[in-house]
User: Fold this.
Amino acid sequence: MSDSVTVIPARSELAPLVLDSPHTGMLFPDDFRPALPMADCMRVNDWFVDELFGAGPDHGAPLILAEFRRAYIDPNRDTTDLDLEIVADGWPHPVKQTEKTSRGASLIWRMIDGDKVIYDRKLSHAEVTSRIEQYWRPYHAAVKTALDDAYAAFGKVFHINCHSMPEFGNAVWGDPNIRRADMVIGTRDGSTAGDAFTAVVVDQLRAAGYQVAINEGFKGVELVRRYSDPAAGRESLQIEVNRGIYMDEAAITRSDRFAQTQADITAMIAAVADYARTQVSAG
Ligand SMILES: [Zn+2]
Assistant:
């Protein structure tokens, strides 16, 4: 355990399944120093997702939690996806920006909601390097270790990368004011997980009554991309849970639907753990 990552080990017989929640951390280190009000910077967390998926360890799946806030550094981005507009000139490392940069939501976020600028200064190279080395890298090391340990034990590993999304869309995300699906499963268009694993998740959630979309709007980003290799038996998928089915987004409180949504996610985790065990015992 450190101030960057917490690993909750399996509380029952280990399954070839790993869960991670990269956006539920609550820590803003002292050198964050935003110009924007802290309340705005705090809002972008995936509230309560660590609790929604908290039963993972009961079903043999380690659960990895980031302890730092997403607005400080985002572990679901590659370190090359750096917005140089907020970094002092002459950054010496390779940069490969993505569409996230235009939304202000790359490795180190420049804006909240695509329009509220976080800093009134440029970050020094030392600040950026510190965020990567002290926070991003330990988180990734913990995820990689858990996945590699399961893979070494079983020859396969299944990974669920856990998130939540605002109930309604946003112009910056291309879906202004549209109510999103209850859950969106992301496999980067089938490149990070096989159809069978995806179907276990989707079928379980649909059977529980949820409207589930696949690769619509939220296809999965760095954590499912980086550690997946379906041909080698490493499958990763992202789940985005609609905040409207478990919380009051304005008040940042659990809603009266929280317990049912959590119970349904727990049942899904149990089904996936069973599926994962079958896959390795079948050889
Ligand atoms: Zn997230």
User: Anything to note?
Assistant: Residues 246 and 259 are 8 Å apart (CA to CA). Residues 23, 46, 163 surround zinc ion (CB under 6 Å). The chain has one domain: 5-74+138-281. The domain at 5-74+138-281 is CATH 3.40.630.40 (Aminopeptidase).
